[in-house]
Amino acid sequence: MNSYTLGKRVVPEDLDALDHVNNVRYLEWIQEISQAHWRENASAGQQDMYIWVVRKHEIIYYGAAKLDDELLMETHIANNKGPISIRKVTIKNNKTNTLLVSASTDWCLVSPRTMKPLRIPEEIKLLFNSSETST
Predict the structure, then answer these.
(1) Which CATH number is 8's domain given?
(2) CA 111, 80, 107, 98: dihedral to nearest 10 degrees?
(3) I need a labelling partner for 25 at 20 to 30 A (CA). Which of 2, 6, 12, 69 fits?
(4) pLDDT reading at 131 higher than 70
(5) Number of other CB atoms surrounding residue 44 within 10 Å
(6) Which residues pair with 4 in a beta bridge?
């Protein structure tokens, strides 16, 4: 499994009225790390040939991050089915290793030209050491 990590420090702009990280900010970070993992592994040609769009997010919040917390985000591809890639993301407090958020996102591979779904090619699966489940 090819995983990817990214660190984050909580800044005032991340906070909501309760002085903890806003749920929308977590969603932005989930998308940010997912896109960074794609850019890190895919060639420029692959990035031109394919784009990913979100089909579904499932997010579970276990705790709250606060100002100046150092966070560690980690992502990997859990599996693929046809055009859908299921990506897992965790966000932890890097100091305490406490799990704050876990997410599962269904990303759909599409052609940037037609915006139609494409079955995930073997070359893309191999970039992330992921598998395809039966359809």
Answers:
(1) 3.10.129.10
(2) -150
(3) 2
(4) no
(5) 8
(6) 75
Instruction: Compute the distance between CA of residue 78 and CA of residue 49 in angstroms, rounded to an integer.
Output: 23
Cα distance between residue 102 and residue 59, in whole Å = 6
Is 132 a domain residue? no
In one-letter notation, the amino acid at residue 127 is L
Examine residue 47 and state whether it is found in any structural domain, yes or no. yes
Residue 45 lies in a domain: yes
As for how many domains the chain has, the answer is 1
Query: 48 in a domain, yes or no?
Result: yes
Q: How far apart are CA 112 and CA 7, in angstroms?
A: 30
